[in-house]
Amino acid sequence: QVQLVESGGGLVQAGGSLRLSCAASGRTFSSYTMGWFRQVPGKEREFVAGINWSGSSTSYADSMKGRFTISRDNAKNTVYLQMNSLKPEDTAVYYCAAGPPGWVPTRSYEYNYWGQGTQVTVSS
What is the pLDDT of residues 22-37, one digit of tens each? Predict the structure, then answer.
């Protein structure tokens, strides 16, 4: 069992940056692939980025490449999402998720554990 708590969301102007954190409980954090998703009302949850257990493999949605960076610190049981050059269309609730080791899934149903989400609002 893994419990996930996101933090770092807030209001930022377009072009600004935010760093989201996701703290995980449990001693097996390092064995999970971790992902970030986002969701706006009325739309499906959207893959943002993922990172394998060691940090050696990452995956990004096309619209986030070059702007967002996912990283993890297994010693701190934490995964991060650095978001730069934010746009109003990045406004959403951002969720972190823990999934199986071995690859980086991009579909929400492939992840087993979810945090409660943190709101990111980008003003124009």
Answer: 999 977 888 999 999 9
How many other CB atoms are there within 10 angstroms of residue 60's CB atom? 20
Closest CA relative to residue 52, chosen from 104, 121, 124, 97: 104
Please state the rounded mean pLDDT for residues 59-85.
Answer: 96
Supply angle C-alpha 108, 13, 42, rounded to 5.
35
List, as own/partner pairs, every contact residues 115-119 make where C-beta atoms lie below 8 angstroms and the sequence separation is at least 24, other chains included: 115/4, 115/5, 115/6, 115/22, 116/5, 116/6, 117/6, 117/39, 117/93, 118/6, 118/7, 118/8, 118/9, 118/20, 118/93, 118/94, 119/9, 119/10, 119/92, 119/93, 119/94
Strand partners, 14: none
